[in-house]
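Design review, sub-item: ligand-bound model
Attendees: FS, YL, KQ
YL presented the inputs for the geranylgeranyl diphosphate complex:
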Amino acid sequence: MQLQTKPEFDFESYLLARRKLVEDRLALYLVEQEPARLWQSMRYSVLSGGKRLRAMLTLAAAEAIAANKNIDGQQKLDPIEIALPCACAIEMVHAMSLVHDDLPCLDNDDLRRGKPTNHKVYGEALALLAGDGLLMLANEILIEHSKDVAATDLLAVVRELCRATGPSGMVGGQVKDMEFTGSDDTKFDIATVESIHSGKTGALIRFSLWSGGKLMGANETQLASLYRLGEILGLAFQITDDLLDVTGDAKTLGKTPGKDEATKKATWVRAIGIDGARQKLSEMESEGITLIEKSALDISGAPVLKALLKYAIHRQK
Ligand code: GRG
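KQ shared the predicted structure:
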């Protein structure tokens, strides 16, 4: 008699399939229109690869909540169809932030995702406008294409996307980052680094997880767990980013390494050293895994959220 064993969760195939799902839908939302050069510039930066981690977090959170609901015997909902417009909107906001971040007036970078940056191809003026276009298109897509979501929940999701992107989130974090960049004395402490990154990188990652749950009608306890997981994951993601800037190479990273040190940024590595940063990462990983297990966010059977957490921490680019 042959023993029936549960098939292993194939994370590599999962990543490929999810990336394709997100990219196909993004291509649909970004079909070239007039003025052609603006759309080409927006398409260039959104459809240029990227890990699609944020989009995957939204979909995984939506699926985790749907699995809980379906187990409870409530109405069956299709989490992917419900959360995919939001996942794409997040990738558009993320892409616009990279376009603006690479501009000469900010980080002045030539390389992104292994390709010339947007302004190197389209010029600074169009890169600026392509970023602006993407920011508003993201909100338009989210509002127009989110189906089967209560209007109050959708409004809350749009509000939180604005908050995660604006002065209390990404823009505020970027400004704090500028205030500390270039300072010779390493006066900044862990609280400063945490506060910069909580806005600049963390806010959109927290929103990615939270929004997947909110769109699926998650309860307050589930939303609080997703929010906390977002905090852990955002922090871990940024520590990894800071470590890769020191240990990675341009070919694998697809962007210029060594810039944090050269421009004297307030990073985890500068604040607590490479070993300190690795230690902090390992603590974040344990805390995240425990949270996922305790809050039953992986009830769907496939340990997706745990795998995504590990991916954000152990990635090479
Ligand atoms: C006007 C909304 C608005 C923003 C402008 C420029 C700016 C303010 C904020 C910068 C935000 C920024 C670039 C944060 C860095 C986040 C980060 C570590 C990006 C790299 O993310 P990955 O590794 O990239 O997920 P891929 O290419 O895989 O998508």
